[in-house]
Design brief:
The protein is α+β, with helices and mostly antiparallel strands and 410 residues long. The protein folds into two domains: 151 residues, 3-Layer(aba) Sandwich (Creatine Amidinohydrolase, Chain A, domain 1); 254 residues, Creatine Amidinohydrolase (Alpha-Beta Complex). The protein has eleven helices and 19 strands. A six-stranded mixed sheet has the order 4-3-2-1-5-6. Helix 4 packs across helix 5, helix 5 crosses helix 6 and helix 10 runs antiparallel to helix 11. The longest helix is centred in the middle third of the chain and has 26 residues.
Length: 410
C-alpha cells in the first residue's frame, strides 16, 4: 500500500524516489499513475522524499491546472529556463538534463541515495542515469526486482479495492451482455447466424464487446475471445474469422480498466447449446480445483504451495502439469494466478516452486484464481478466473460475481 512507502524507503535505505513521466494515460507508466491517480498529467517527474509527506510534481506550464488537481507540491519546469541551460552546456541536451536535475534537487532538498522508476526509453534512461551517477551529487540506485514501488503495490487498501470492485462490476455486466448477445442469434447447422444470414464470427463478437466496454466507461487494453483449437492456447486472443458454433469451448478472458485506473480480470468458459461429455467432465474438474484453492487461500503458506496443490489435483485425475514439464502444451500449463491492479499482472504470483520461494500473500493482496486445462490438439480449452482480495480482516473475499455455467442454452 502507498502508506507503506516511508517504511519501505527506510528498509531500502533510500532518501528519495524519482518517478519519470510520461503517464501513458495510466497504461504504460503505472508507477507514475500510482501517484497521479485518475488525473491525466501528460508528462512530468514525481519526487518522493523520505522526509516529506507530500511528493513533488515537476510539470510544464500548459499542464499547471491538471498538476494542481494531484495535491502534490508543484514545481514548474519553465522556472528553470531550459533553453538557457542548453546554451550553457554548448547544446548538449544530456548534459543539460543532468544540470537541470542538479538544480532541481538542490532547490527541493534531495540528496543521498535516490531510486529511479517510471517510463523512459531504455537507451535514454541508461545514458541519463549513467551521466547522473558520474556527477556524484546523489547516489543513483536502481533495483532489478522487488523494488519499492512493486513492493508497495503488492497490497491494496480499501480505496484501491473500491475501484477494482467497480471495474469488476462493470466487466461482469459486459460479460452478461455478451452472453445475451450470443443467445439472441438463430442457429442453423450448429452455426450462429447474423440477421443477414451470414455466419457470426469471432471478429463480430469482439466488435460487440468493444462497443459494450466503451458504453460501460471501460478502457480496453485487449481481451481474449477464442473458440475451439484457439481456446486450447491460453493467450491466443482468437482468430477473427472463426465461426461461432455450438458445442465448442469459448474462452472469454476480459481485463479492462477504469479510465487511467484499476483493472478487473475475469475469465469464463462457455459452450453454446451443449457440452460434449469430455469437456463437461474437464470443466467440473477445473471448478473443483478452483473452489478447493479458493477455500485454501491464506497468508501463511508460500504462494508456490497453492500452485503445487493445483498440480496435485490435476495430476491425480490423469492430466499432465507444468510442474512435470515446463514446455507442456497439453494439460495444466500455467500458474494458478497473479495479482493485478494498475497493471494486469503484478506481484505476487502463484507460480512454480523455486521462482519466488519466499513469497506469501498478505493482508491487502488482490489475486486471481484461474486454473485451466488445455488440449489444442483435441480442439478445446477451459479456464475459469475470479478475483480475490485478502481484506483488512485477513479474510479472502471474492470481488467477482458472474454466472459460472459452462453451457449457454440457445
Amino acid at each position: 500500500m502507498k502508506s507503506d512507502l516511508p517504511r519501505l524507503m527506510r528498509e531500502h535505505d533510500l532518501d528519495a524516489l524519482v518517478i519519470l513521466g510520461p503517464d501513458g494515460l495510466g497504461a504504460a507508466n503505472t508507477a507514475f499513475t500510482y501517484f497521479t491517480g485518475a488525473t491525466h498529467v501528460t508528462n512530468g517527474t514525481i519526487v518522493v522524499k523520505q522526509t516529506d509527506s507530500v511528493p513533488y510534481l515537476i510539470h510544464s506550464t500548459m499542464e499547471r491546472d491538471e498538476a494542481a488537481k494531484t495535491g502534490m507540491n508543484l514545481v514548474n519546469v519553465a522556472d528553470y529556463r531550459m533553453p538557457e541551460i542548453v546554451k550553457q552546456v554548448n547544446g548538449d541536451r544530456l548534459a543539460a538534463r543532468v544540470e537541470f536535475t542538479r538544480r532541481l534537487f538542490k532547490d527541493i532538498g534531495v540528496d543521498g541515495r535516490v531510486g529511479f522508476y517510471g517510463l523512459d526509453s531504455v537507451g535514454a534512461s541508461f545514458a541519463f542515469l549513467d551521466a547522473l551517477s558520474r556527477e556524484e551529487f546523489v547516489e543513483v540506485v536502481t533495483e532489478y526486482e522487488n523494488d519499492i514501488l512493486s513492493e508497495a503495490r503488492k497490497t491494496k487498501d480499501a480505496d484501491e479495492v473500491a475501484l477494482i470492485r467497480q471495474a469488476c462490476r462493470l466487466t461482469a455486466d459486459v460479460i452478461e451482455t455478451t452472453r445475451d448477445f450470443l443467445r439472441a442469434h438463430r442457429v442453423v447447422d450448429e452455426t450462429l447466424l447474423k440477421q443477414d444470414g451470414q455466419p457470426l464470427t469471432v471478429g463480430d463478437v469482439k466488435a460487440f464487446i468493444r462497443r459494450e466496454e466503451a458504453a460501460a466507461g471501460l478502457e480496453d487494453p485487449g481481451f481474449i475471445f477464442s473458440i475451439g483449437r484457439d481456446a486450447g492456447v491460453p493467450h491466443s486472443s482468437g482468430t477473427p474469422g472463426d465461426l461461432i458454433r455450438l458445442g465448442q469451448t469459448i474462452v472469454y478472458d476480459i481485463f479492462p480498466r477504469l479510465p487511467g485506473s484499476y483493472h478487473a480480470d475475469i475469465t469464463r468458459t462457455w459452450c453454446l447449446g451443449y457440452a460434449p461429455d469430455e469437456i463437461q467432465a474437464a470443466y467440473e474438474l477445473v471448478m473443483q480445483v478452483h473452489d478447493t484453492l479458493a477455500k485454501a487461500f491464506n497468508t501463511e503458506r508460500f504462494t508456490h504451495e497453492f500452485q503445487d496443490m493445483a498440480c496435485d489435483l490435476f495430476e491425480a485425475h490423469g492430466h499432465k502439469t507444468i510442474r512435470q514439464d515446463l514446455g507442456l502444451t497439453n494439460g495444466y500449463i500455467h500458474s494458478l494466478g497473479h495479482s493485478f491492479g494498475l497493471a494486469v499482472h503484478e506481484a505476487p504470483t502463484m507460480g512454480m516452486r523455486g521462482v519466488r520461494p519466499d513469497e506469501r500473500m498478505q493482508v491487502g493482496t488482490v489475486m486471481t484464481n484461474e486454473p485451466g486445462l488445455y488440449y489444442p490438439d483435441k480442439g478445446w480449452g477451459i479456464r475459469v478466473e475470479d478475483d480475490y482480495w485478502c481484506n483488512l480482516a485477513g479474510e479472502f473475499e471474492c470481488l467477482t460475481d458472474v454466472d459460472r455455467s459452462l453451457v449457454i442454452p440457445m
